[in-house]
Structure formats: structure tokens, C-alpha cells
């Protein structure tokens, strides 16, 4: 894999023995896999200075590389837009949380919460069932 325009040079070189050589600028940011004649190269954490024309080329002995179209990669910084939207999201979350807390506090203030947590007195009716009280009701 070669860079051809902005910073010409070799990004990745893989020999037939599967020995690889990665450019220091792409160490820990480049992965590749090889299956037969097919190779998949993945570049990660791209930066603005990674913008360039990338060409996959095969080394052929005694034959110079005449031309190749390659793939143009243009990296633009988009983190600022994400950061702004994330701040809006955080602010909105905080506002919703504060409104919810104030709603709960107002509800608890209006409702007499103590009466729900007090121990209820059981309904007890006491009747005197002694002999004297029964006798007085029988006479009447």
C-alpha cells in the first residue's frame, strides 16, 4: 500500500513469506488480512494529514509500476460537531433531571406522606360479656 501525492511513501509492505513492514505513522492504526491473492487493509483513527491517494501495488521483478488509479482518501475533522451536539444532549439531560426532581419534591410537599407511613391503630370494639352485664340485658 503506497501513498502517492501528499506524502509519497510506503504505508504497508507484505512479502510473499507474509513478513510485514508498516510505516511508523500507521503503527497501531493499520490492520490487514490475507486470503490467497486477496488482501484487506483497514486504516483506523484517521487524521487530517492521512488524506492522500492510496494505491495497492504488486512488486514485479524487472517491471516498473507504470500507473495505478488508487483510492483518494480525504479526512475532514468532524469532532467539533459531535462535541457541540453532545453538550446539548448533556444539558438537556440535566434539565430533564432537575424538572423531574422538582416534580417529585412538589408532590411530596403537597401529599401528607407521614400518614402513609404511620402505624395504623387497629379497630377494636370492646364488649363486656360478664354475667352481670348479660343479666341486666335479659331483664330489660
TrEMBL record:
Keywords of this protein's UniProt record, alphabetized? Membrane, Transmembrane, Transmembrane helix
**Any one of the GO BP annotations:** adaptive immune response
According to the UniProt entry, its GO molecular function terms are: signaling receptor activity
Transmembrane segments in this chain: where?
87-111
GO CC annotations? membrane
Q: Which InterPro entries match?
A: CD7, Ig-like_dom_sf, Ig-like_fold
Protein's name according to its UniProt entry: CD7 protein
Domain of life, per UniProt, equals: Eukaryota
